[in-house]
Design brief:
The chain has eleven helices and two strands; from the N terminus they run ααααααααααββα. With 389 residues, the chain is mostly helical. Strands 1-2 form a two-stranded antiparallel sheet. Helix 2 runs antiparallel to helix 3. The radius of gyration is 25 Å and the shape is elongated.
Length: 389
Amino acid sequence: MHRLPLPFTLLTYCGYWKPTKWPARSIKYWLYNVYSAFMVLLLYFFTFCACIDSLISKDLKTMTDKFSLFISVFGVCLKVANLFLQRRKIINVMNILLTENCIPRDEQERIIQKRNDNYARKLTIYCEILNESAAFLATVAQYNEFIRSRTLPVSDWVPYDLSLQKLYTISLLHQTIGLMICANTSVANETLIAGLMIQAGAQFEIFCHRARNLPALLLETRRNIESREDFKKRCNRILGNFVEYHLEVYKFTQTVNTVFQYMIFLQFSISSTVLCLSIYKMSTIDPFSMNFVWCASYLCCMLTQVYLYCWFGNEVTLKSEKVGDAIYEMDWTTLPTDMRKDLLLIIARSRRPVKMTSGHIVVLSAKSFMSIMKITYSSYNLLTNSTSK
């Protein structure tokens, strides 16, 4: 898991990802199971209270306020469930990056890999700062107002009496911790998917580098091997590894898309709804209040989640298109005739670039992001017009 350590570390701290290296019979293995069960119950009870609270709201404004936060929390619950259900597949996806072909072989490939690893790491840190800031503004920053009005950050409904100070304090801490956990889990999930897209792009970059260096590798092989028969065998082995790596890169991207496509579609649906409701809410409250600042930060979080998928999905497509160009740019005159024919097949394959999708419906691209923004704005106008009548 060393390619994307930060997302898995966040999930481990939240209780939703048991480290793969822990032995099954160790004490920490079983203690973590208990901790994980506790954190799952905490999250789902937190979500249940938010659901009931949004359903019993008496007016549209209160319902939209409650519902916009509830569906985000509900989305986190589904993401956690997906992590448990897809755990084995996620491990297999990460193991593809540790195969011999995917490991950097020279200094230039190590530079490419390191640059993309650092990119994924910084992305996780920035998203963590953004989401935790939003969670802080929604909870701790408004504690004075909550205590004064005897309300709670997310859900004012709980299955017990809040008139007792101890129960109110416990509920306030529970919802604060619950929202922080949701923020961490959401960051880990989004940056894990985005990080895997970054790694897919890195593998395409490395493949293009190897394609450009293929003639030089064959020339060096020819100098070291005198026998024509041995040279031919060596060329076939080199080409076989080259084609195998090409297939592994495509397999990796397809597996990532298969494992996470429905979670991406879920996030698209949730974020579009939350964006619409958040904009509507911001238009009805004081722009100089803490509530407005919290709504603005929450809106930024939702925009970032959608943007990450669209941007990095688009990057994977663009980098996969460069495969054919990299092969075409190499020195073809030094290659054997049989190898040229085989490389033409790779060029033909690259004419169909990789496209990351959201539930086989939306292709992740910059164009898709703009389409979602237009749909969100249209929904906001519809909601505004319906409430003004």
